[in-house]
Every structure is written in C-alpha cells, then in structure tokens.
Amino acid sequence: MSITAFLTDSTLCIGCKACEVACKEWNQIPHDGFDWKGFSYDNTGGLGHSTWRHVKFVEGGAVPGIGGNSPESFSWGFSSDVCKHCENAGCLEACPTGAIVRTEFGGVFIQPDVCNGCAYCVVSCPFGVVERNPEEGRAFKCTFCYDRQKEGLKPACATACPTESIKFGEIEDLRETAQQRMNKLQNEGFTDLYLYDPRDSSVGGIHAFFIVRGDPRAYNLPPAPEVPTTYLRKGWLSAGVAAGLMLAGTLLAFSKGRNGSR
Amino acid sequence: MLKDLLLRWPLVRQIMTGADGTGAESMSDRTRNLRSRIHGTEVTRSVCPYCAVGCGQLVHHKNGKLVSIEGDPASPISRGHLCPKGAASYELLTHSNRLTKIRYRRPRSSHWEDLDLETAMDMVADRVWTSREKSFVEQQDGQSLMQTKTIAHLGGATLDNEENYLIKKLFTGGLGMVCVSNQARI
Amino acid sequence: MPGLGTSFGRGGATTAPNDLSNSDAILIMGSSMAENHPVGFQWVMEARKKGAKILHVDPRFTRTSAMADIWAPLRAGSDIVLLGGLIHYILENEKDFREYVVNYTNASIILREDFRDTEDLDGVFSGWNAEKKSYETDSWAYEGAPLKEDAAQHGASGGHAQDRGGEKLEDSVYRQDRTLQHPRCVYQILKKHFSRYTTEMVEKVCGVTPDVFRKIAEAFCSASGPEKTGAICYAVGWTQHSDGVQIIRSAAILQLLLGNMGRPGGGILALRGHASIQGSTDIPTLFDILPGYLPMPIFGADSKTLASYIKKHSPDAGWWANFDKYIVSFLKSYYGEAATKENDYGFNWLPRVTGDHSHQGYWAEMDDGKIDGLFVMGQNPAVGAPNSRMERKALAKLKWLVVRDMVEIETASFWLDSPEIERGELSPETIDTEVFLFPAAGYAEKEGCFTNTQRLNQFHEKAVDPPGDARSETWFMYHLGRRLKERARKDPCSKNAGFNALTWDYKVEGPLGEPKAEEVLQEINGWTIADHKLVSGFRDLKADGSTACGCWIYSGIFTKEGENLARKREPRDFYGHGWGFAWPADRRILYNRASARPDGTPWSERKKLVWWDDTQKKWTGNDVPDFTATKAPSYRPAQGAKGDDALGGDKPFIMHPEGMGRLYVPSGLKDGPMPTHYEPLESPERNLMYPQRQTNPPSNFMNRPDNLYANSPDPRFPYVLSTYRLTEHHTAGGMSRYVSHLAELQPELFCEISPELAAELRIEHGSFVTVTTPRGIIQARAMVTHRVTPIQLDGKTVHQVGLPYHWGYKGLVKGDAVNDLVALSEEPNVRIMETKALLCNVVPGKRGKGSTALAELEQGMKHVDEKDGTPA
Predict the structure, then answer these.
(1) How is A121-147 classified by DSSP, letter by letter?
(2) Which CATH number does A4-226 carry?
(3) Domain extent listing, chain A
(4) Do A68 and C68 touch (CB under 8 A)?
(5) Residue C663 neighbours by CB under 8 Å, 6+ apart
(6) Is B48's Cβ below 8 Å from some Cβ in A?
(7) Which residues are CB-contacts of A40 (< 8 A; sequence separation ≥ 6)?
(8) ipTM above 0.90, yes or no
(9) A108 and chain B: CB distance < 8 Å anywhere?
(10) Confidence band (pLDDT; 50, 70, 90) for C164?
(11) Are C334 and B129 in contact (CB under 8 A)?
C-alpha cells in the first residue's frame, strides 16, 4: 500500500472554501457557530474539533496594475490548512489508549470508539490541529478520509477543490510535483515562495505539505515544529538528575538528624 | 476459538506481530471494517442547482433517502469538482427548515395555519379564475387582445425548462396573463 | 441578451468555460469569476498554466484579482469609457485583425447620409425624440436598405426579442467599401465615434492611470491575429447598469475588431448566475418573448393577423427567414388540433402586450393596487429585487399571493417579520393579503433539464421523492391547469376559446400523480403531427401546420429514435459532444465558421476549429459547424435567393441577413447603434464625455414617491456604492442562509471600505456602520481593507464602498436587505436595474430599531424629496 499525501499549492487557491464544506458534508460534522470573526473573509478561525479544513486569508495590500499572480506582490493569499499527518505524530505518541493509529496509507487516524477524551493529544500537536469537543468529550481531527481511501476514493476536499490547489496522491510523486512547481514559479520570477515540508525537525516530515507565498507563519505553519516526545530523553534525564539530587539531599538531611544534636 | 478471543485484544496482537502498538494491531473492529458512506448506494446523475456553470453531480441514495452528493468526475465542464455551494447540496435538500406542509395565512392574520394540498390547490384555482373572469379583455378597437393584467407571475431561472414551458403555456397561452417575469435579463 | 444578439445573431454566451483554456489572454470585467463561478474558473487557471495573461478590471481587488496578472481598479459605472479606450487604442494604432474585420464584420457597409453620431449632436444619435424619450431609428439603417415599420421599437416591446438583431430593415441590401475608406462606412464612423475615448479620458472618468491602462491594452490586444485569440468573460457587473446592453456591445466590438469571435480561445463568455437562467430566456417566463425568442405579439403594432406579424418579423436572408415555420409549429404545440390555417393557427388566442409587463413594470402597478394576485416560484423579491422595501410594501396591496419554495422565504412572510412590520410602517392587522406557501421539491427530487451558461442542456434525474406535501412545479402547474380547464370547459364562450383549445393532457404516473418531464420535453422538441414522430431538428419544421414544436432552438434535443440527448453522459471530445445537448444543434462554439479563412482553410494550425474539407465537400473539424454543412466557401448567392441560400460561403454570422458580425447595429436597440458613455443614474461626476447628456437618454428612472434619487453629484451621498456576490452565498439567500455549512462561512453582512475612508470617518474594522441612500437604510459590519482604494477622478478623490447583497430577515443567519438601497430603474432594452453604481452615505454606528428606524428612514427621504428627488 502506498503512502498518500496532500500537496496544498496555495498559488492555485481561490479561497472558495469548497474544501471546508466538502469535508463537513462528507464527515457529517456540524457547523461551528455563526460568529463573524472578520479575519478578512475567514469566519471559521482555525482548525478544531468541528473544522478539519480551514482556509486562511492573508491580506497583503492591493496595488493598481498588479494582480495577485504577479511576482511583484501576492496582495491576498489563501491557503487551506489541514492536519499534517506527521511522520512522527505528537498526538499519536501521546495517546494513552491506543485510540490514535497510523493507517496503511500513512495517515494518522483517531478512532472515535476508543478515544476517552483525555486530551493528551491536544497539547502534543505542534500545529494546534487536534481539539476536544467540549460537549461530547472526544478529540477529533482530519481522518484523511480513511473510509474513502479504503475504497480507492480521493479525500472529499481534494475531490471538490475547483482548481486542484489541493492535490492528493502518492507522497513521493507529490514531493516531486511540489519541487517542479517551485522551480517553474521561480523561473517565472517569483522570489517569495516557501515549500513547507519540515523534514529536519523532529516531526520528521509531514504528509500534507504546502507551497505558500510570503511568511509561512502567516498561514499557521510554524518554522520549526517539534514533537513533544523529542524532549523525552532530556525530560527523563532531567527527571533522573532531579530525583538523584533529591535523594542525595534527603539522605543528607536524615543523616544529620540521626546523630542527634551536636 | 480461544485464539480468536485473545486476538481481539490489541496487546496480544501487538506482541504477536512485534509491532509498536500504533498501527493495524491497535485498530478496533469498527476501524477495521470502516466503509465509506456511499458504499452500496444507488447513484443518480444530476446537475448542481446553484449557479449556471452546471457542474455534474452524483447523488447517492439508498432506500429512498439521500446519502451524499458529490461531483461527477465524468463531466467535461467540472471534472468532478464542486464549489462550496455545490458541495453543500446534501444539506440543502435535507436540512430541518425545509417546508413539508402548505402554510396558509388568512387576510389580516398574524400567524400561519396548516392547509392540506388538495384544498390549497382548489382555493388557488378559485382565486385565479375569479380574478380572470373579472379582468379579462377579449377585444379592443376590433382587434384581438385576449389579456388579463390582474394576475402576475414571477420565476424562475432555478426551474427546469419543462416547468417554465408549462408556466408560460398555461398562464400566457391559456389564461392570457401577460405580467410574467423572472430573474433573467441579459 | 440583446447585446450579444444584435452583434452576432443569438442572445447567448458564444463559447464554453472549458474553451477558455485555449485563450492567450482573458479579460474578466464586470465579473469576479473565481468567486461566483469557481468551478468554471478552473479553465482560466488552465489557460494561465499555459502562459495566458489574466486581466481583471473591477472596483475592488477580489479573489479573482488574486489569481490575475493585472488588476485595474475601475470607478463603478465607467466601463464604456475603458472599453471605448481599448477600441480607440485598436483603431488608432491599426491593431485590428484586418482580414477578419473586412470579411466577417459590417465594417465596410456604408451608412445613410442622414445618420448623425453622438459626436455631431452632443451626446445623442440622429432621431432622438425628446418628448417621447425614444429614438426614431430610420436614419441608422444601412444606405439603400428598404425600411419596414419596426414593431420592436414600440414602447411596449421588450429587448429579448432583439436577440435577433431587429427587423427594421431588409439588412441584406447594402453598399460596401472594402477598403474601409469611405467616410460613411462603419469603420470610419466607429473611429469617429470613439475618437475622444483617449488614455487621458480613461484616467479622468475611470480613475485608471495611463500606465495601468496601457498594460491592459497591450496584454489583451496582442492576443489577436491568426495565431492568437483572447476571450472576454462578464457577468452582472456589466449587465446591471442603465447602459448594460451597450457595455456588452462594447465588448462585442472589441472581439470583432480583434477577430476573436467564433475561434477557439476567443468569444465572449456571458457568465450567468442561476442553474437554468439561459433556459429561462430560451423557454421564457418573460413577458416580451415566446419560446425560441419569437416576439410576443404587441397590440396595435404587429399583431393584426398572423401574416402581418410574420411579415414584420422575417427578414429575407439568414436563418430567421424561416420565422413562419417556427411560429406556426409553436402555435400547433400550444393549441393542437384546434389550431388550423383558417384561424391563423390560434394566433389570436395569444394575449397581446400593451405596456411594460416586466417585473419592474407590473410591480409598480402592484404598488398602485392594480394587481389581484401573484405567483412567485423560486424567486425571492423581498430581498433579491431592486428597491426591496418598495417590493415588500407592494406585496401588502395584493389580494392573494402564492409562493412556492423549499423554505419560508422573506417574500412569503413579509406580513409577519419584515422591516416594515418591525418599524411599524405596516402591521398584520392592516394587511389583507391572503398568502399560500407551497413546499417545493428540490432538484434531486424531480426530473427535468437545466440550460446552463454555455447553452448546454443537461437533464437531471430524480433520486428520491420530495418530502411531505412538497411537489415539483411540473406537478403544480399541471394540476392547477387541470382544475382551471374544468372551469373553462363548463363555459365555452369565445373568451375561453384559446384556453379550451390549449392542449393539456399530459400523462401522470406514480402515487404522487406526477407528469413525465420527458413528455413535456418531447413537445418542446417537436413532432410531425400525422404520425407523432419526433423531428430531428429545426430544419424539419414546416409552416403548413404539419409540424408542432414548442421551442425551435431546442429542436433536435431528441434524436428521431427518441433518445434524449440532454440525458447523455458520454463525452467523446474536448468540447464534450456526447454530454448533454447545446443549442443550436449541439454547436459548442458559436459562429465557428469564422475560425476559418474566407477560403475555408484554418487561420492557423494552432487555432483551427472547423474547416472546409474539399474532398468530402463539407465542413468538418472539432465542433459541429455553425454553418450549412455542405455550403462551400466559394458559394455566392444568386440574385433573389432567400433564407440561408442568400448568404455566401464566407458569411459566418448566419442569423443576420447580411451574414456579418455587427460593429454597428442598424436596428434593434433602443439606445443607439454604438455604445456611448453616459453616467449612471446617480453619479459622483458630471458626464465629461457629453456634458449635455448626463444619463442614458432612453433609460427609465421610474420616478415614484418611494423611489427617489440623489443628485449627480450630491454632497449628502458622497460615496459610490457597488453591490456584489460572495462565493459562500447564493443570490437572495434562500439556498444558502438556511444551510449551516454555508451560513457559518459568511454569517454577517459587511461593507468593504478603504482604510483611507475609514480613517476619515473614524470607522474601525469590525464595528458597525449605517449605509443610506435616498431609498433605504441598512447596517453592516465594517470590513476595512486595502482591497478597496480611493479613485482619482479628474483631480478629485472619490471613495467607493461595496456591499454583498445576500442577507434578509430570515434564516440561520440574518441581516439587512441591501436591495433596500437600490433604486427601481430600467435600462431601455431589457429593463434591468442598476445595482452596480449608486451613491450612498456611510456613518459609523448601528441604525435605529423600531419606530426610530422609521423616523430615520422618513427623515432621509423627506430630506431628499425637499431638495427635489428627481434627477437632473
């Protein structure tokens, strides 16, 4: 079984939010409330337990004569955020019940019938993707349309996307596609492109990579995402040292005491 | 049999496969047997009801109920894609605010009442006929006029061609209504 | 669609979205295609991938501008100046595709001596009658063309019948100068007409600077010639103006001069907004036309007898010469056996048009208490129609109202929860209107066909039954008609003769008693009466009563064997033949004869589409030829030839009697043979082009007490307002504000304001603002953004603001109806309202509620009225 991935090329994104809706319709996720947030055209806010695809709008300033597709300025950027299905997934490593598993397609899947709502996964995700539903208790995130992939179908968001900004396919093919696209755009004079696929960090690379213009942090993509378990060794070490010191200190304290007064 | 029972315990599966507990060995029955919602449904070919691009849609249904609506990959226009509105077609047809009964308001009333379909149809036919009888003009200055101006119609660019055909045929060709309009202009 | 119809011959988009992928440049103007036709927009992205330049001209920087190479911010309402500037650029620099222009357009045709241009008469053409507020168009005719009295110029007529280019004159008679030097040839007249649409004028009137304008001109006009083509996409940003038809005419002139019509990657894509909007004019629920763009008979103008009606509307040359076959077959499908030669096939049973029976026209009558009852099916005028406040108040004057929809739309509950009730202007106890709200079936709960923006008919099948008492319109109309026919049968007097003759015996099936949509579609297709066999196309129709056909342009949607082509889903080529049925005769790119040279060979290998095969002696290629298949390029008509035989083998625009694309339209339009810049009905500027003529002379302000206008300019309403749509919602909101997954994406009405204006008025992003016009008052969230910029017009700074119009007082998400701000007005040809360029005032803060709101509204209107709310 080949490992699948998403390539989200935001230079092709028209900010239509078909991905948000297709995902919700397929997974029968309810709406998030009708609050106007006014983050440009984004009223969803971010990924959460009831939003698994989220389109971010980054306003850059419009210049007469210059369209958004020109190298000079991107003016208004859109990018569809999603769970990264990390190679080393913080949520998966933190889950104490085995609810979170790696599927045969390489995606990270939360089994809703096993999840006990402890929310350890929530604090372990370096991207802030997973969220617990406060009303009914369990944690939810993008399933990578595991049910669809098992039947040879593309995820709902990739199926809907009108301009194929969301591409779905075999991970190495998509990495190749991403690089070719970067090369093509750079040849056309674009100098502010960023291919986001942090293989050097402890997440070890992600299965949903992005091409964005400008600073990736504006699109909720941290430059150096880390899996919390990367601090485990350091953590155990510190704990060990602390324990050792505490033991030494205790022994010292008690040894003085046994000798009675001096 | 005991082996089957034991294998249902993820820990046993993990030990037996030498895995680390993050893969298939930790999958519940539900996960292992997961099927897409459209598995085993019937498919009907349709066209998105929103804008005029006319994206192809596949309407999945089973036992008389809608299950899911997605794009039709075979369409040379849309290639299987849908915009957010087209992607929301399932909810458009199944949300809880859809009307299922006739609502009726009496003159000067401040609330709705229910009405059954056949009665409502009879009442509407009465009103149309009464108005037409009062206002129909057959001739003017010796020339054919055959017109009534006191009943009007509005709609619709969201209706089927067959429906618009029947509306114009009955209202204009039959009853002589000339006040007929819809959203279309240019 | 008279803009396209009078220019080319048919009122419909000339190309298909996927053909845009063949373009070398795409100009999107009067449209935000990426937002309102996202899936269609994928084809623009394909073109972009291949190196095409994408140009977007729009008052705001939208999601479309974000995908374009060049964005030009335009002052709303000045489109003709920009397009005229492009025409001027082409003519002055001789960048027109000369061989195409000489052979395929009427550039060489000579006009009459008594024709006067707007340059001669300070802003009007010859024939302007100020009293009647209309033109007498005799002097516009081609020199030498014999004239007929033009029924289409009658005050009561509508413009949709002009999709055929008018019947004023025998346009097949004309004189030409193919060197284009004659001072009265169309080419020279065009040059003179646009001589002052210079780069400087574009800057002064549109606010587009010379360097940006030049970028656009170079990018678009270089995509021309044998090897390159460019396409234009437009939507209601062009049509909803008091000179909307002429804006489209400007685009038509551009495309003819650049030689882009009928060629792959060329053409004009009219982007329309409803699932079957093309269908709703083809098989119209409109007052001025019958199916297939046959004109409704007008009392006293053309309808004394069938013969006089036919004579008035048939030219001698071109496909419209078969007019008699279309009308007779149509009458046979309505009146069946009772329609005979003796009674003119029931022609006198059709009602006559006696005035303005359009939406605007009869709504004004409704407001005056003259309408008893109204049916509203799949439309929501309480939110979606211009001057929606007036619309709602007029509904209260009806005796009865029947609304059919899937949800309880605002139109149905105007007596319960409208702003008029909230403000205390009206109360339920004083509203006599009896209201019936019928639940409607959704599209997947019935079968039938839609005709989309590219004239493609697609049949959708029924998946499930509608819930409860919800029924389709087919069901409703059939059973209503059945009941009414019962009454007519009992009273067989002469006034019921037509109704009794009307054929209405459709078979019903199933527990719901639903008629079969395909039976109706077969009637639309047509059959020979004797054996009830389906005809295979409009060529089979006869004028002797032996054929019946509900809509001649759809004829051929069934094959002779009975296969419903609209149902087919087997695409076999790029243009999708085998998937649905495009009228006419499944031609996907209209006027495609023009994709070949006069001698029948393609203009180039790269841009070949159809061409003449000299071995097989027929036209062939990648599309169905929009031409008689066996007519050789060298064919020249004999003297006295008629109909299609009167057109030579080098004449691609086969619907026109002269067979050419019309740069200049000699008849058929009420406001001029060529586009002219006039200011919108409310404007921040005086008309710099023609100071004597502020607005489009024949446009209708519809002056009424509730329909007041600002002055132009007006210090009380200093900002230009444009209304528009968002991707996330759909029209008046009935199909999106009740759908939670859409409602949450755009939950509140907002007003887009530039940071400069926001600073001036001390408005913060996210706070509330109140927007007023002389018609209404609404509140919205302030969306302060750089994507809206102030414009410099003739040395003066003008601010523009934008409002999406999707909200109403019902639904999961609610808001004020923006159409309360818009005036009820009529463009002269199609009677469309002006929503794209108004004047408004913006103040920080929410509007009042209840009786305070009423006081604010009345104060505003009194204020305007006192200063004489009638326009200059």
Answers:
(1) HHHH-TT---EE-TTT--EE---TTHH
(2) 3.30.70.20
(3) 4-226, 229-262
(4) yes
(5) C105, C106, C107, C186, C187, C190, C253, C256, C257, C674
(6) no
(7) A57, A58, A59, A76, C783, C785
(8) yes
(9) no
(10) very low
(11) no
